[in-house]
Sequence to fold (457 residues):
Amino acid sequence: MSSQALTIRFHPSFSSEKEYILRVLFQEFLQIPVQFEHHDADWYEIVIPSGQSLLIRDAFFARIEHESYLHASYLPAPPESKAQFPEDDFHTICLFGKPGVSMLADGNQLNENDYIAASFLMLSRWEESLSHEAADEYGRFPESSQLSVKYDFFHRPVVNEWLDAIKQQLVQKGFECPATQRAYSVFPEHDIDIADRFPDMLAWFKSLAADIIHFRPGDAFRNTWQTGYQKFFKKASDPFETYEYLMNQSERFGLQSRFYWMPGQGINTDVYPFQGRRLQSYLEQIQERGHAVGMHPGFNTFWDDDLFAIEYERFTRTFPDVTTLRRHFLQFKVPYTFRQTEKFGFNLDTSFGFKDRNGFRCGVCYSYPMFDVLEKRTMNLWVSPFILMDVSLLRLKYDERKARQEFESLSDQVRKYQGDFRFIWHNNSFEVQEWKDLAAGYPGYLQVVTSKTGELL
Fold:
C-alpha cells in the first residue's frame, strides 16, 4: 500500500456510514491509506499530499434532517419526465446530486455528482432493508423493485465506474495512484440443490408418470426412461453427479471450482443424504483435487437461527473449517440474515446476485466488507457478489450463442477493472432436456472468460 495517505474531510453527520464507504473505496479498492477530519461544509474534500483537493458534493447525507435515511422517500429517482438517470462527463450515472461542476467563491471546482453516497447505497444494499415493498413468496426483496433493475443499469458495475472517475480526477490533480495488487479472477461455483435426479426407483417411476400425465412425449420421455434405465439396470452414475466433469473443466482452464452443499436432510424440502457414503466419496475427491467447498443453507434458515444451527452442526461435522456460504434460492433479508452469517463465524457470503437476469446487483465486481445499516457498523463479514447464473440464462430463453455472448460481455467488464468474475452453474444443469443446448456450451463459456488479456484499472 502506498505511503501517500489521503486526508478526507467531511461533515460529521452520519460519520459511521461515511467512514465505512470511504475506507472501502480508497483503502480496500484503490489500496490508498486515508485519514479523516471533519468540517462544516456540505462536500467531501479529498486532500492529496501536494495540498490540492478534489471536492465532491455531499448531495445525500447533507439533506437528511432526521437520524435515519432508511425510508423510500430518500431513494434517488431520475429527473422529472426522464426514464433513466443522467450521466456526467466521466460517463458515470448520477444517482445523487447532478452532473457537472460548480465554481466556489475561492475558485475551486466542486463535482456535483455524489459518488460517495451512491456507492454506499449500492454496497450497503440499504434499499433492501426498507419495508415499502412486500416480500416475494420466498421472503426475498423483489428483484424488479431494485433501483438498478427499475432504471436499467444493473448490467453496469457502476461503483467501479464511479471509483474510476474519482481516480481520474485525482490523477488530474497530480496524485500518483499506486498500482493495485488486484488481478482479474474467475470463480466457477456450483450449488448442489439436488444431488441425484433419481435417488431411487420410485422417484424414477414418478418422473415417468409425470411425463405421461403432462403430455411430455418424445425426447423428454425418452431422456427420463433412458437415464433411469442406465442408472438402475446398467449401474451408470446419476446424471446429476457431474462433480468430476465440473472439476475436469475447471482444471482444464486453470480454475478452482467451489461446491456449495446443503446439509439439511429431513428439514423442509432439503432432503439429499449429505452425509451418505456416495456423496462423501465425491466430497473427498473435491478436496483431494484442490477444489473448494461452501455451505448452502436450506429453505427458511435465513430468518431462523435455530433451524440454521441444526444445518450448521451437520455441515461442520464434515467441514469444520469452511467459512464461505451462499443462501439457497438467494433467500436473505438485509441486514438480518448477514448478522446470522456473521454470528456463526462465516467470513464470506456469496449470495448477492440476480435470479432473473445477470449483472451487478451491488454495482461492483470486488469483494468487500458488509455494513449493518441498522447497527451502523462495519461487519466482520465480507460479501462477494456473483455476476451470472445458469438459471437466469434459461429464464431469458438464451441459446448457446447468446449465453456465450453474455459470459463474454460481463467478463469483459469485470476484466476491465481487474475484478472477480464469480458465476454459478448447478450440477444438475446438464442432462435434463431443457438444459442440453445451454450445457453443451459450458467448456466454451470457460474458454471465453479465461482467454483474454486484462486491462489494468
User: Anything to note?
Assistant: The chain has two domains: 6-172, 185-197+238-450. The CA atoms of residues 241 and 278 lie 10 Å apart. Confidence is low (pLDDT under 50) at residues 453-457. Residues 400-416 form the longest helix (17 residues).
